[in-house]
Design brief:
30% strand, ten-stranded mixed β-sheet, 382 residues, 18 strands, single chain, five-stranded antiparallel β-sheet, alpha+beta
């Protein structure tokens, strides 16, 4: 698994520098009369004036983010699977750029999977055992699943990024990896508060043989998304992994694998008896959010101030990217929570939360050893 984690980080760093505007080829069967993406004057032009930001969660990397924009970058981890997530919103809210998805699995080929891999996949939320899927097949379904609930969502086009594939393949080879890489650009449109928006997603699936990985980068704007590709390339080139973090990951690998297997045994034995197990995703999210907020970066503060003020611009899109929900309490204050749950109960003082399915209630909190009087139910904001 160490190799798959390393390959995933490498792929994400390389992908942002491989796509080029206006050079993708239509996938066979695409309608030549497909509707053009709507365009409108953009308020914030592309910029390559970057400020270096450090990963606040694990100190795993630094990356250049656009100066003056609302920036957020962090590590997301479930056991051994680590990923990088980047979000940036222009000052006027007309452009959103993202890279990474904290919910994307790493895939093992059925031909290479052992009984241990199958046992782990049953309890690991980000490990799946499935045959390799080319990017042209993987990402249209991904886009519909991830963003299909946006208002007036429409899939516009799916195009092979042939040059991106060649460059990605070459860069992996230079790094000493023999892989088969596929790349695609998927365009879709939707409306945000009645305003037409154009989105371009650039995705790759990379097959190493025993396992395969998926990376994603995208742009959404009221103007032309392709104008921002050079900006994304500049951000990708600025990425620097922390050597100390990499060395530490190598040392911890074996211990972490033992923890995963032990977790699997515990989950199998206690799944129906241990309600606390359902809170692990919420705990990971709360720890990550605390680390991000403690970083104290001014652009980060601006990002959260926008959300807390009820600024709905890009809110749903951001929530889909980060696998979050926005919830609101009786006071009207909003909070970001992990989207794994259907009902949420927020602690009245420290604002930690408990999530559950539709059956979750105050009595269930009591069953977890908590005082129901300390919590209020908060509602998902649509």
């Amino acid at each position: 698994m160490r190799s798959s984690s390393h390959l995933a980080v490498l792929a994400l760093a390389l992908t942002t520098a491989c796509s080029k505007p206006n050079e993708a080829a239509p996938v066979g069967g695409s309608d030549p009369k497909k509707p053009a993406m709507k365009t409108a004057p953009q308020s914030t032009p592309p910029t390559t004036d970057l400020v270096m930001m450090r990963d606040p969660v694990e100190n795993a990397f630094t990356m250049g983010m656009p100066k003056g924009w609302h920036n957020r970058t962090y590590s997301a981890r479930v056991f051994d699977i680590h990923s990088i997530v980047v979000n940036t919103v222009s000052p006027d809210g007309s452009v959103l750029i993202f890279s990474g998805d904290p919910s994307l699995p790493q895939y093992w080929s059925p031909a290479a999977a052992t009984p241990i891999h199958y046992d782990m996949a049953r309890v690991h939320p980000r490990m799946k055992i499935e045959p390799f899927v080319p990017a042209t097949e993987y990402f249209p379904a991904y886009v519909k699943r991830k963003f299909g609930k946006l208002s007036d969502f429409k899939l516009v086009s799916t195009e092979v990024d042939a040059e991106g594939e060649q460059k990605l393949q070459k860069r992996f080879a230079e790094a000493g990896h023999r892989v088969h890489a596929t790349a695609v650009q998927v365009a879709f449109s939707y409306t945000d508060g009645g305003r037409p928006m154009n989105a371009l997603l650039m995705g790759t699936t990379t097959d190493s043989g025993p396992f395969w990985i998926v990376t994603v980068t995208g742009i959404t704007t009221s103007g032309d998304p392709k104008q921002y590709i050079p900006m994304i390339e500049a951000m990708g080139r600025s990425y620097q992994a922390n050597p100390a973090w990499q060395a530490e990951q190598n040392q911890k690998h074996q211990a972490r694998m033992a923890q995963i297997q032990e977790f699997g045994r515990q989950m199998t034995a206690q799944h129906h008896r241990n309600m606390a197990a359902i809170q692990q995703s919420a705990q990971r999210h709360q720890q990550r959010m605390e680390a991000i907020q403690q970083q104290g970066d001014a652009s980060m503060k601006g990002y959260y101030d926008r959300m807390a003020a009820g600024d709905a611009q890009h809110r749903n899109f951001l929530n889909y990217i980060n696998d979050e929900n926005t919830v609101v309490g009786a006071s009207g204050k909003t909070f970001q929570v992990d989207n794994s749950y259907q009902r949420y109960f927020m602690h009245k003082r420290d604002h930690t939360y408990i999530g559950g399915d539709t059956r979750m209630d105050l009595d269930a909190l009591r069953g977890l050893g908590l005082n129901p009087d300390d919590y209020e139910e908060v509602k998902i904001q649509k």
